[in-house]
Amino acid sequence: MTNNHDLDTVAAFIDGERVDTDALKRALATDEGRSYLVELVAMRELFAGPAAPAAAVIATPARAFSWRGLAAAAAVALTVGVGGYAAGHFNAERKLATEREEANKAPMPTREIPPSAGTTWIETSGGHN
């Protein structure tokens, strides 16, 4: 009888993880371990899409450096930099205009002087007519 640890080793092997080779040999030495391996492979086939042919994978080598990728990254960085600068400049101008507007407003009155009876409120000395 195979213990659960050996079956876990088979599952780890199928998942591409590093496994102890002695534990894998022990698990596959039993009928239960081999059956479990076959079930896992069948399940993986069932849920995985169609596999790419090995020749297609070998025929397309990976490139470590791409001028197009570098140009695209530079364009993105330049766009983000210029856009950020423009947005900051616009916000600074708007903030400055708001501050100027606030500075030119008359202050709120601190007290109210009610009109007294008999006062005409017409200035007679030094006023403009």
Quick one: overall form?
elongated
Helix fraction bin: 55-70%
CA-CA gap between termini: 117 Å
Mean pLDDT metric? 78
Count of the domains? 2
Structural class: mainly alpha
Uncertain runs: none
Number of strand segments:
0
Question: Strand count, sense and closure of the main sheet?
Answer: none
Q: Give me the strand/helix succession.
A: HHHHH
Task: Give Rg in angstroms.
Answer: 41 Å
Beta-strand share of residues: under 5%
Tell me about this structure.
With 129 residues, the chain is mainly alpha-helical. It folds into two domains: 4-59; 65-100. It is built from five helices and no strands. The mean pLDDT is 78.
Describe how the helices and strands are arranged.
Elements: H1 4-14, H2 21-28, H3 31-47, H4 54-59, H5 67-104
Helix pairs in contact: 1-2, 1-3
